[in-house]
Amino acid sequence: MRQPHGRLSYPTAERGSVVEQYHGTAVADPYRWLEDLDSPATRAWVSAEASLTRAYLEALPQRARLRARLAALYDFEKRGIPFREGGRYYYTDNSGQQDQSVLLTATRLGDAPAVAVDPNTLPRAGNPVVTGYVPNRAGTLLAYAVSMSGSDWTEWRVRDLATGRDLPDVMRFTKYYEPAFTPDGQGLYYSAFPPPQPGAELSTQDLGNALYYHALGAAAADRRVLEDSAHPHWQFEPHLSTDGRWLIVRAGEGEVGDKGRENLYLIDLTASVPTATPVAQGFEAAYIYIGADAGWLYFLTSRAAPNGRVLAIDPEHPARANWKSVIPEGRDAIDLGGKSVTLVDHQLIVRTLHDAHSRVMTYGLDGTPRREITLAGPGTAAGFDGHPGDRETFYSFTDLITPPTIYRYDLESGASTLVHAPRVAFDPAAFEQRQVFYPAHDGTRIPMLLAYRKGLKLHGDNPLLLYGYGGFGLSSLPLFNASRIAWMEMGGVFAIANIRGGGEYGEVWHRQGIRTHKQTVFDDFIAAAEWLIARHYTSVHRLAIHGRSNGGLLIGACVTQRPELFGAAIAQVGVLDMLRFNRFGQGAGWEGDYGSPEDPREFKALYAYSPVHNVHPGTHYPATLVITGDHDSRVMPMHSFKFAAALQTAQAGPAPVLLAVDLSSGHGGGETVTQAIEQGADVYAFLAENLDMRGR
β-strand 262-268 against 309-313: which pairing, if any? Predict the structure, then answer.
């Protein structure tokens, strides 16, 4: 295979002498110095890497054409799912040429909207990105989240919608969780951390989280509502019942939801001395708050139900003996990783997963099935939010080749009405999707979704990009991405393997790929690659793999375990040092999926697959692009730094190994449209070059 650039000369990464003992095993960590992100040595090395990567990518012959095509593909109006509060509708909208979507509001859909918040007009210092909105009940105030350069560190500002001006109130040092307005709009409950030390924003561990109440306009310090100083790694997520009486608090060991097991507390805010009443303790199962109606609180739980079920709790009598089962566990899993059950029009709307695509049913509050909501086809549905008294809700539908399309759903008639269908710069009819099932090494049947240009020939030479995640019970569902259209226009095939570790088939599927069973995830992904080659979709030299975050770990493990199986790899914001992941940011909370290096048995499993520790000199590794963000406070950039340094040092073949550090970018990457286009051009030009796709 042609290597047009020849062998690259990489910046020197000095090998230190750090060696640590783990349960009697001496483990070298030669690139420990790269954990000090602001040291002169690290900064110099990263700068040299950036120069090398930029020069390589900008010289790629396909990049300019790809960038222009991506700009055209991204240039369509993107409409968010509407929500209603205080007699007004709110929805985000992007003309296709704006870096960030604008929040609009109108009394009726179809009326000329007013601008509620335009993130593109915020002062540019720090590269602010708006990441969320929460209106008060009356629709007069709006809390909105601002992240600097895509970092998880977020501050919530409050806007007076009548004047369009921000109030002086700001809730700082938050992450992950939305605040909750009190029904009277006089204040908010929110979750926050202690301020990090200057310069330590990316490495500071997520410790000391607490729940606070902020009274709007008050000069006094915010009141601390709930904390647990004996467990500094616990975090708290607030919700308020519709009547404002009950503060519902989910607590997690680390980020709430990461382990799929929470404690649950209720606080009666009308009590003379509000105190937290434990409802579920011991982190035994997931408890996800749905809503309140007629005095009952509704929850989605995995307790005694790995596929999920719905239960109701009387907050006046919250003892477990008084819990009421509403919707029993079914054959299809309810996704525990998202807001899969909502309460609207005194009905429960339940989204389940059927072979890795959405099915939606409505139920009465007594659990009686009402009707299935007909979707446009196999794909992913999202939304269905609202209040118990609403008669309508809104949702989006998407798949790999259909941009998110917005519908209004009438809960009384069961009718869906089109609200917005994007007009795109390609013909969706020119592409097709196909779901296949392949056997894992142990015989487990695994779904995989393929998308490609119609008329695909199975001659074993198609460029193919295989994507995977496989962790934390999160499901990899079909979602539209404009960049992939450009890939398929070039003749590329795109595939998603729904490997174990995710939530596609519930908690059983998830738990088959965690802790000492994590290797199952990698084996499932490798089996997908082997199946695609055996069925003549592609060949080794035309096969690329891509994953993000936990999926970046997947790519790192597969590259180090089976380097001969792939032509190229994209490891994006990956967790790659599995012996030190728990020392930074929210890493300690990931022990539920990964296990702990402090446990002898789990250490053995971690050390066996940790990408940083399994790079071997003299190996021919595939072309690899390692991507991180300079503001990634979730997965510290040191993971990518260490892996890139190790891989470059060990590379015996001519294929390039490059480190790309996205500027003003966090864990999400591509926070703005401009960033998404630039990153897409980099990734697909890199793949085109190294999979020999010139002329396509």
Answer: unpaired
The string of pLDDT tens digits covering residues 658-669 is: 999 987 666 664
Nearest to 531 by CA among 638, 650, 404, 439: 439
Residue 598 CA to residue 114 CA, distance in Å, equals 55
- The 3-state DSSP composition of the chain as helix, strand, coil percent (nearest 5) reads 20, 35, 45
Q: Which residue is associated with the tokens 């240039």?
A: 75
CA-wise closest residue to 572 among 554, 560, 586, 596? 554
Q: Which H or E element spans position 88?
A: strand 88-94
Q: How far apart are CA 519 and CA 522, in angstroms?
A: 5
Tens of pLDDT, residue by residue over 601-642, are 999 999 999 999 999 999 999 999 999 988 777 788 999 999
DSSP helix/strand/coil, 621 = coil
Backbone angles phi, psi at 446, to 5 degrees: -120, 130
Looking at domain 122-274, which CATH architecture does it have?
Answer: 7 Propeller (2.130)
Measured over the CA atoms of residue 329, residue 331, residue 336 and residue 340, the dihedral's sign is: negative
Query: Where in the chain are the domains?
Result: 42-72+427-690, 122-274, 286-424
Task: Report the Cα 636 to chain-centroid distance in Å.
Answer: 16
- Tell me whether the CATH fold assigned to 122-274 matches the one assigned to 286-424: yes
Tell the CATH superfamily of the 286-424 domain.
Prolyl oligopeptidase, N-terminal domain (2.130.10.120)
CA distance 314 to 266: 11
Alpha carbons 330 and 553: distance in angstroms, whole number: 32
CA separation for the pair 277, 296 (Å, rounded): 16
Contact 149, 126 (CB under 8 A): yes
- Specify the DSSP class assigned to residue 302: -
Instruction: Fill in the DSSP letter of residue 205.
Output: -
The DSSP bridge pattern shows strands 623-629 and 568-572 to be parallel
Cα dist from 344 to 84, 318, 332, 384, 424, whole Å? 12, 23, 22, 8, 32
The 3-class secondary structure across 564-593, one letter per residue, is HHCCEEEEECCCCCCCCHHHCCCHHHHHHH
Q: CA-CA distance, 542 to 460, in Å (whole number)?
A: 9
Neighbours of 99 (CB within 10 A): 15
| Nearest CA-CA partner of 554 in 468, 640, 448 | 468
Residue 350 pairs in a beta bridge with: 341, 361
CATH of domain 42-72+427-690: 3.40.50.1820
- In the numeric block, the tokens 């142990």 are attached to 442
**450-491: pLDDT as tens digits:** 999 999 999 999 999 999 999 999 999 999 999 999 999 999
Q: Would you call 653 exposed, middle or buried from its count of C-beta atoms within 10 A (0-12, 13-18, 19+)?
A: middle
**Which residue's entry shows tokens 């097709």?**
432
Residue 3 has pLDDT above 90, yes or no: no
Which residues are designated catalytic? 549, 667
Q: φ and ψ at 114, to 5 degrees?
A: -105, 155
% of the chain with per-residue pLDDT over 90: 91
By the 8 A CB rule, do 579 and 27 touch?
yes
Q: How far apart are CA 552 and CA 544, in angstroms?
A: 13
Q: What's the CA angle centered on 585, arms 582 and 590, to 5 degrees?
A: 45
CB 278 within 8 A of CB 263: yes
Number of H helices, E strands in the chain: 10, 40
| Close Cβ partners of 91 (under 8 Å, ≥ 6 residues apart) | 79, 80, 81, 82, 83, 103, 104, 113
3 state DSSP class of 643: helix
Please list the alpha-helical segments (H only) found in 493-549.
506-511, 519-534
